[in-house]
From TrEMBL:
This is Tryptophan--tRNA ligase. NCBIfam families: trpS. GO terms for biological process: tryptophanyl-tRNA aminoacylation. SUPFAM superfamilies: Nucleotidylyl transferase. It holds the Pfam family tRNA-synt_1b. It comes from the Bacteria.
Length: 324
């Protein structure tokens, strides 16, 4: 039997380079492998866990779906859907909350980080984020999840919930593992942390043209001299180089060691490699924007397929828990 895969990206804006290299590339690899059955969602419900604009959410969840399609996710090979269209996710998350302690959720580093970021928005939805993520994955009985390494604590929660449900109620949930990609951690253009839509000036949009990409990459802070230790910004640049132009790494490493590294040459090489990767996606995106009816059809059909599978799992859980 094929192994199930589930992944999703929050609907907080169009996808950026970090999303593409860190998640979508892995999603594509699994979609094209006949051993897997792939479910890929736009995580619009997860967007509600932090402050958001209603109209932007309505727009962004569609933009993410268009980005999925432009990147090569194929509705003939994968189930592409919006999370909010499958109400069973919310129902299963509540059942899972009955085997998950408040203390466990409060001690997750991701929860603590978000509370610091949004001290006035420490809601139950934010606390329950990992439980909903577990429901997203286990409702399809997915055994593999292509996400970044920062999501590993949430995946461990998912595995714990699967074990508790299996032990207490006799369900047969798998304990999912993370599918890693070579670009799973894409650094911020600021030189600190990872690329994120929530940090202005840290990311490259999939829709950016060459000049915009070049300008953004050139803005990455670097040391004034090539000698000594690499600055955080220079380390970020070499991380980019390793992912988008690996054949160039040795050349620039030698230049750095010899003290002859030209920062502009390094940055422009990276910018051109990034644009070469994104140009086909941008051309496909223009075609999709000109055909909104097709996008509507993909969303509707994906929701129907996802609902059919999700309903079976929820019915099974309700029966095991004594609700049927």
């Amino acid at each position: 039997m094929k192994k199930r895969v589930l992944s999703g990206i929050r609907a907080t804006g169009r996808l950026h380079l970090g999303n593409y290299l860190g998640a979508v590339k892995g999603m594509l690899a699994l979609q094209d492998n006949p051993s897997y059955e792939t479910f890929y969602m736009v995580a619009d419900v997860h967007t509600l866990t932090t402050p958001y604009n209603i109209e932007e959410l309505r727009k962004n969840r569609r933009e993410v779906m268009v980005d999925y399609l432009a990147a090569g996710l194929d509705p003939q090979k994968s189930v592409l859907f919006q999370q909010s269209e499958v109400n069973a996710h919310i129902e299963l998350a509540f059942y899972f909350s009955s085997v998950t302690t408040i203390a466990k959720m409060q001690h997750l580093p991701t929860f603590k980080d978000k509370v610091k970021q949004y001290p006035e928005h420490a809601t139950m939805a934010l606390l329950n984020y990992p439980i909903l993520m577990a429901a997203d994955i286990l409702i399809y009985k997915a055994g593999l999840v292509p996400v970044g390494i920062d999501q590993e604590p949430h995946l461990e929660v998912t595995r714990e919930i699967a074990r508790r449900m299996n032990q207490e109620y006799g369900t047969d949930f798998p304990e999912p593992k993370r599918f890693a990609t070579k670009g799973e951690y894409i650094p911020s253009l600021t030189g600190e942390g990872k690329m994120s839509k929530s940090v202005e000036g840290s990311y490259i949009n999939l829709t950016d043209d060459l000049e915009t990409i070049r300008k953004k990459v050139r803005s990455v802070p670097t040391a004034t001299e090539a000698g000594g230790e690499k600055s955080s910004g220079l380390q970020a640049l070499f991380s980019f180089l390793q992912v988008v132009a690996p054949t160039q790494v040795q050349h620039f490493e030698q230049s750095f060691q010899q003290g002859t590294l030209q920062f502009v040459e390094l940055k422009d090489t990276i910018a051109e490699a990034i644009y070469a990767e994104l140009k086909p996606l941008q051309e496909k995106r223009k075609e999709l924007e000109a055909n909104p009816a097709y996008v509507d059809q993909v969303i509707a059909q994906g929701a129907q397929k996802a609902c059919e599978v999700a309903a079976l799992t929820v019915k099974e859980v309700r029966g095991k828990m004594g609700l049927l």
